[in-house]
Each structure stands twice: as structure tokens, then as C-alpha cells.
What we know:
GlcNAc_PI_deacetylase-related, LmbE-like_dom_sf
Amino acid sequence: xxxxYAPMPDDWGRALAVVAHPDDLExxxxxxxxxWTAAGKDVAYLIVTRGEAGIDSLPPEQAGRVxxxxxxxxxxxxxxxxxxFLGHRDGVVEYGLPLRRDIAAAIRRFRPEVLIGLNHHExxxxxxxxxxxxxxxxxxxxxxxxxxGNRWIFPELADQGLAPWPGVxxxxxxxxxxxxxxxxxxxxxxxxxxALEAHRSYLPALGPEHPMSDARGFLEAKTRRFGERFxxxxxxxxxxxxx
Length: 243
């Protein structure tokens, strides 16, 4: 039998979620975000791309505008007021110094205790291959957490008024095949479902047979499955990585 999930630490007040695309957080982590904001925690979102390559029937510029709007709406549903987009190109996000610098700047600006990200490993729990955007953003986020606290890395950020921030305690990576912690979302699942449904232009583009096209069914099944390792309580699982 798989070992039970441990409760994720909750003795923190401020988090920054950093993912590649609009909608990445809504496939599970946003349910936890809704629980955290309801408990008084401050969460902000940083989206690396605008998701402009995600809807085949729409030109990229139009798709990017639509997906930005839908992400801002989805964030508001779970209690997140601050959403920023870095504008890296969707589908071809490169790991490297520019991405690390952009994320480190955001960490210095928001000064979070906790980072929330998405699976940075090569594969998902299912064994399916993970996308390069997810992998590159996830690894860059973990690296940028250290960059943000070191005044000798990207010293130009200090010249911009962004002082080093060594206060990040850990990162919680959703969707990871190595998750060992979980968050009770039994009271916030409805908000998580509504947040996923806010991506009303993107979800139909996945096709009617795609499991994520049924937002409620998808999230209820996921949280129920995770709950088998969390005393039967609906939950979202995270890999917790110390910084």
C-alpha cells in the first residue's frame, strides 16, 4: 500500500504560484489555493506565458488575450487578486538565465514564504511525458528561489529596487509523481471546479473526449483518488521541496 500523505505545512502567510500557462493551476492546485485564501493566506500568481499557442482555432495574439482574461477570472474565484504574466513564448519556453532572472525578480517583488509550482519531472504520475514548458519553468522556479536570496546573483535587480529575498522556506509542486504531502480541499472543491470552468474557451479546444473537459468530474475523481492516502478526505497532493 502507498504510504499516507502527510499534511502540508500551513504555518505560513504568503505564497507565490509560478506556472507556465493559464489553466495549469486549475487542474488541482487551485483547489488548495482556495482553501488557503479562505484561511487568510495571501497568494499571488505569476504565469510565464499567455497560453497563446493553446487554441488551434484562434490566432496566437487573440488566444493570448482570451486566456489572460480567463486566468484572471479563475484566480479571482479562488481568492487571488494579483496575477502577472511574463510574456515568454508559449510552447517554446527555454530554461536559462533570462527565465531565472524574471522569476527571481518576481520572488523579490512578492516576497513569499512558499512557492507553488507544477511538476518539473520528465513524467506525470501516469507515466506520460511532461511538456518542456512545464519542466523548464518548474526547474527555473526552484533555481530562482536561491537566486532571489543572493545579492551577487542578478545584482541588476537590486539596482531596480528589488532587494534580495532569502525568505522562501519551501516549494510545493503540484502534479508531481513524487508527492508526499497533501492539502484538505473538501471545503474548497466547488471553487476549484468553478475556477477550472472559467477557462471556457480553452477547455472545449481539448475535445469532448478529453477528461479535463468535464471540470467537476475530473477534479472530484482526482481529489477522491488522492484522498485514499489522506484518511478519505478529498485533497490535492504536492511534492514539498526545501529551499
